[in-house]
Amino acid sequence: MTIDPRLQSGLLPVEQARAQLLESVTPLRQTETLPLEQACGRVLAEPADAQVDLPPCDNSAMDGYALCGEGRQFTLVGKSLAGHPHSGNLQPGQCVRITTGAALPGGADRVVMQENADLDGETVLLQKEARIGEHIRRRGEDVGSGEQIVPAGRRLKVADIALLAAAGVSRVTVLRRLRAALLSVGDELKPLETPAAELGTGDIYDSNRIALKAALGELDIEVVDLGCQPDDPGQIRAAFEKARDSADIVITSGGVSVGEADYTRDVLEELGQLEMWRLAIKPGKPFTFGRLPRTEGVSYFFGLPGNPVSALVTLYQLVLPALEKLRGAGDDVVRFRGRARLLNPIRKSPGRLDFQRGYTYRDGDGLQVVETAGIQGSHILSGFSRANCFIVLPRESGNCDTGDWVTIEPFQKPLT
Ligand SMILES: Nc1nc2c(c(=O)[nH]1)N[C@H]1C(S)=C(S)[C@@H](COP(=O)(O)OP(=O)(O)OC[C@H]3O[C@@H](n4cnc5c(N)ncnc54)[C@H](O)[C@@H]3O)O[C@H]1N2
Ligand code: MOO
């Protein structure tokens, strides 16, 4: 197999890696039909059409009186409540009591708010004349029956669910959920169930798998949990084969660096193709991407570094955009970045795009400020836990001083 020579000599820029990842993955095609109530967060595979007009009829936007014609004096001839329309047609000079959302009776051409009218027996007196069309919501002004209301490819958010429900769409066809196989690699890793007293020297809890599982769960991705594997090429190979055969993507953590027990890349190259390794990102330099072909199709392979902060930063910055494309929702993902003023100096050496962990807030003067969330080692989880944003420092920048303006990227799902 051939590797881009730039990968061997230097480090691949993060933006280039993202673009390459997006180019490499092909969105899912299989679909399923679900009740609307189960579809939030899923990607619509077929456009959805309104089953009814919205609003379904001309109706009132206010509690008050529906009037027929001009003038300031009207005779009250009935009422129209939401769910209980007035049956007759109004003649000029007549009005009915009406509530918000209630159907406008035939002949009514304007509505006056009750605050602007006085009732005297059967007579309604307006404080000032109402304009034609005032406070009337027209049938179909939101959407018309049969109109396409949500396009294919939309990741359904709460507002989409509200619209579809209002328009009478009770079932939708969505792309099936992505399936990810997850496994950790390392002799030192122990399952979380192990009592602390039973840990040997250098043993650690397999926290990455738990964190990655939580992150994928937040994204409504099905997880096939393949546990932790020792630093043994045979066992890693068997686990990769199982992962490849059971999932659309395989996510591993650990064993992608250059240590003597780092077998992940070797096994990847044996079973498939290594497409990307060593990026100009901090933390997360040894991030690995490749493919594991199977009898039918392919499973995409993401090898995250073992260091816990590196694993999550690379998941968020590199894997997620690819997953969004894979599950068909590429264009709906908005990643917000802003600027904030640094409250403390930051150390950085040029060479890698740095995602430091920070805590941002508005100070008493309304200024967006950010402070570092403590020491920045890729093994320091307490700072990550305290943080609410990344401080994004350009690849070639060096140290920063108090008062400098820096780029921040507030945490969004699945980091929140
Ligand atoms: N000589 C070099 N050494 C290292 C380099 C390098 O360029 N040259 N890169 C460093 C960088 S940067 C990183 S990041 C790490 C990544 O190493 P691996 O992906 O091979 O990960 P491991 O060596 O297996 O583990 C690293 C670290 O993370 C802990 N770990 C591993 N898995 C888990 C898990 N599931 N849950 C929690 N913690 C985990 C592991 O115990 C190690 O402490 O390599 C550097 N070395
Ligand atoms: O790039 Mo590694 O992820 O610093 O620790």
UniProtKB/TrEMBL annotation:
Cofactor(s) needed for function: Mg(2+)
Alphabetized Pfam families for the sequence: MoCF_biosynth, MoeA_C, MoeA_N
Keywords attached to this entry: Magnesium, Metal-binding, Molybdenum, Molybdenum cofactor biosynthesis, Transferase
Domain of life: Bacteria
Catalysed reactions, as listed in the record: adenylyl-molybdopterin + molybdate = Mo-molybdopterin + AMP + H(+)
EC numbers, comma separated: 2.10.1.1
Top-level enzyme category: transferase
Residues annotated as signal peptide: none
Alphabetical list of InterPro entries matching this protein: MoaB/Mog-like_dom_sf, MoaB/Mog_dom, MoCF_biosynth_CS, MoeA-like, MoeA_C_domain_IV, MoeA_C_domain_IV_sf, MoeA_linker/N, MoeA_linker/N_sf
Pathway as given in its UniProt record: Cofactor biosynthesis; molybdopterin biosynthesis
PROSITE patterns registered for this protein in UniProt: MOCF_BIOSYNTHESIS_2
Boundaries of every MoaB/Mog domain copy: 181-325
Similarity-based family: Belongs to the MoeA family.
Record-linked PANTHER family: GEPHYRIN (PTHR10192:SF5), MOLYBDOPTERIN BIOSYNTHESIS PROTEIN (PTHR10192)
Function: Catalyzes the insertion of molybdate into adenylated molybdopterin with the concomitant release of AMP.
Protein name as it appears in the record: Molybdopterin molybdenumtransferase
Organism per entry: Microbulbifer halophilus
